[in-house]
Design goal:
The protein has about 280 residues and is an alpha/beta fold. The chain has 2 domains: about 10-125, CBS-domain (Roll), CATH 3.10.580.10; about 125-280, Beta Polymerase, domain 2. The chain contains 11 helices and 9 strands.
Length: about 280
C-alpha cells in the first residue's frame, strides 16, 4: 500500500471490506445487528436511488424521534447517496465530507458501489486531520476549550502543504473549519440566550468570505436578522458579542476597523437601506 500520509493516494486504498446492503423493508433493529456483526458504522439500502443508514441516524432519527425497533430503514435512510470515484485522491473525499458535513462516503467504480469509507478512516490516515479538528469543534461546550485552535490549525496547514496541496485547496479547507467553529459558537450562544426571535444569518467578509484563509486573520463578520424589534436588537447584540468574544478566545483577533457583528448587527431592512445608500 502507498504511504499513508500521501493526500494524493487513491481513496479506494482506504477500503477495508465490501459494502453491506440491506433492503428498504429491513427493520432498524436488523440493520443495527448487521452493523454490529460487521463492526461498521453504516449500511447501504438497496433502493432506487440507493440510500444509507448510519449509526448517527439510529441515534438521531430513531431513538431521539421516539421510533421503535420495527421501523423500516427505508423510512429513516438518507439519499441520494453521497459518492466519490474510487480512484479519486484522498483529498477529494476529504473535501466532500467537509463541504457536505457528512461522515460516510460511498466509493464508485465503473458505476458500481464498491465500498464505504468513514471519517474515522481518514482520521487514521492523517493524525492531524481537518476532520479530527472539525469533530473537536463540533463537541466543545465553551470557547475556552479551543484555546489551541490556532496552533492545531497551523499544524494542519503544514500537513496539508507537505502533502502536496495548493493554496486554493488549503484555503477552502481552512475556511470550512472556521465555518464549523462559527456554527458551534452560534449554537452555544443560542443555547444560553434561548431561541432567536426572528431568523438570522451570520456572514463573513474578506479572505474567509472568499474561501482563501490559510492561517487565522482578524475578524470580518456581521449579523443580519429578519424583523426588527426591541427584542431582536437586544437578542442579536448579545449573540454577536458572545460569538465575537468566542472567536477571540480561539485565536481570531478583533478587527481593528471594527467590522464585526458587535457593531454591524442590523435587520434585513436596515441592511437593504444601507446598501441602497452605498450604491447611489
Amino acid at each position: 500500500m502507498p504511504p499513508e500520509n500521501d493526500l494524493a493516494l487513491p481513496v479506494k486504498y482506504l477500503l477495508r471490506r465490501p459494502p453491506v446492503f440491506v433492503e428498504p423493508g429491513v427493520t432498524v433493529a436488523e440493520a443495527a445487528e448487521r452493523m454490529r456483526e460487521a463492526a461498521i458504522g453504516s449500511v447501504l439500502v438497496s433502493d432506487d436511488p440507493p440510500g444509507i443508514v448510519t449509526d448517527r441516524d439510529l441515534r438521531g432519527r430513531v431513538l431521539a424521534a421516539g421510533l421503535g425497533p420495527e421501523t423500516p430503514v427505508g423510512r429513516i435512510m438518507s439519499r441520494p447517496l453521497k459518492t466519490v470515484d474510487a480512484d479519486a485522491p484522498v483529498i477529494a473525499a476529504l473535501h466532500r465530507m467537509l463541504d457536505d458535513n457528512i461522515h460516510h462516503l460511498a466509493l464508485v467504480e465503473e458505476g458500481k458501489i464498491v465500498g464505504v469509507i468513514s471519517s474515522s478512516d481518514l482520521l487514521q490516515l492523517q493524525a492531524r486531520s481537518p476532520l479530527y479538528l472539525r469533530r473537536t469543534v463540533e463537541t466543545i461546550e465553551a470557547p475556552g476549550e479551543l484555546a489551541r485552535y490556532s496552533r492545531d490549525l497551523a499544524a494542519i496547514v503544514d500537513t496539508l502543504f507537505r502533502g502536496g496541496l495548493g493554496a486554493v485547496q488549503i484555503g477552502r479547507i481552512v475556511s470550512s473549519l472556521n465555518d464549523a467553529l462559527i456554527r458551534r459558537l452560534v449554537s452555544l450562544a443560542e443555547r444560553e440566550l434561548g431561541p432567536a426571535p426572528t431568523p438570522f444569518a451570520w456572514i463573513v467578509f474578506g479572505s474567509e468570505g472568499r474561501l482563501e484563509q490559510a492561517l487565522l486573520t482578524d475578524q470580518d463578520n456581521a449579523l443580519i436578522y429578519g424583523e426588527d424589534s426591541d427584542a431582536a436588537r437586544t437578542y442579536f447584540a448579545a449573540l454577536g458579542e458572545r460569538v465575537v468574544n468566542g472567536l477571540i478566545q480561539t485565536g481570531f483577533p478583533p478587527c481593528q476597523g471594527g467590522f464585526m457583528a458587535t457593531e454591524w448587527c442590523k435587520s434585513l431592512d436596515a441592511w437593504r437601506s444601507l446598501f441602497a445608500r452605498w450604491a447611489r
